[in-house]
Amino acid sequence: MATRxxxxxPASEASEAERFARLRLLRSPNIGPVSYYQLLxxxxxxxxxxxxxxxxxxRGGAPYRPxxxxxxxxxxxxxxxxxxxxxxxxxxxxxxxxxxxxxxxxILTVRGNDALFDQPAVAMVGARNASAGxxxxxxxxxxxxxxxxxxxxxxxxxxxxxxxxxxxLAAARGDGGTIAVIAGGIDVAYPxxxxxxxxxxxxEGLLVAEMPxxxxxxxxxxxSRNRIIAGLAAGTVVVEAAPKSGSLITARLxxxxxxxxxxxxxxxxxxxxxxxNQLIREGAxxxxxxxxxxxxxxxxxxxxxxxxxxxxVAAFDGAPPDYGDDPALTExxxxxxxxxxxxxxxxxxxTGAPPGSVQMALVELELAGRLxxxxxxxxxxxx
Length: 383
Hints:
CATH class of the largest domain: Alpha Beta
Structural class: alpha/beta
Domain DprA winged helix: 319-377
Shape: globular
Domain Smf/DprA SLOG: 86-297
Family: Belongs to the DprA/Smf family.
Largest sheet: 9 strands, mixed
Order of helices and strands: HHHHHEHEEHEHEHEHEHEHEHHEHHEE
Mean pLDDT: 90
Number of strands: 12
Pfam family, one: DprA_N
Helix content: 40-55%
Protein name: DNA processing protein DprA, putative
Strand content: 5-15%
């Protein structure tokens, strides 16, 4: 394996071979975070999981071949060339707030100062075609927060995102700064006109990607990016947004994670403010300054309410569930599913099978390319 030069980041006790196998497992076809963690719980390691994948997929009804080692070696070399490093879900430097989510990203690629993961963080998102006033407000808010030691998290998009990053970089002192979560690979500049800003963040802040190096951002990657933005932060601020925008998706994810949701009110005559006004009607906190935001995240003593370097809980810690071994269960569940999403809990209830057995049957169908996973723990089958 050409991993000797790879910077794997501050590690857990996993061996280099295991970490390479984890990367190969996650990059193999039809494996996402849910199936990744289920397989690690079932087999105990990625090294033990990889040889089992063809048999599992055959039970799901299709042949299977894991991604080749040469592809992973090439990826690791590409990450090395950019100065990036990998963070695995059980590494000591993996962000605890993100790790506390259900099925967090198993592997992140990062460039820059990962000590920013230890700081109280605020996500700031909004419209790409933002008004001049909103851009200035985002820049000023971010500067005020970074000056107080906060990490300002955003997605490096045009408009509000770019203004938030620029403001935080300009005013960062002490432990404050900015974290950019990008939808493509760590070595891909997107949007192209933010290439210089992206490099500056990698040098002075922290750049984070979930996709492999070389991946061009696609529409399906942005919801995953948004969940990382919301998951890293103690609260999310929406500065300006239309009613059906990715920024509102990020805010709603933050609410699902039990984090603060804040919004800046705007004129009802400007459609770019309708999303923020809608959030406020639904219970988001109205904010008008960096001080308003900081007060929601800090205690009255001025210290962060969140402790970021407590020991996190790995997504597959605890006793493994009862997986059983019932080949007929996979096809029984396939017959129960249709194109409409169904909660996994309902499948467990109707089959009467152990939860672990149902989860593994779903993994078998997913490996075979027959299962589609939806938000909220729901699944459907391709017909």
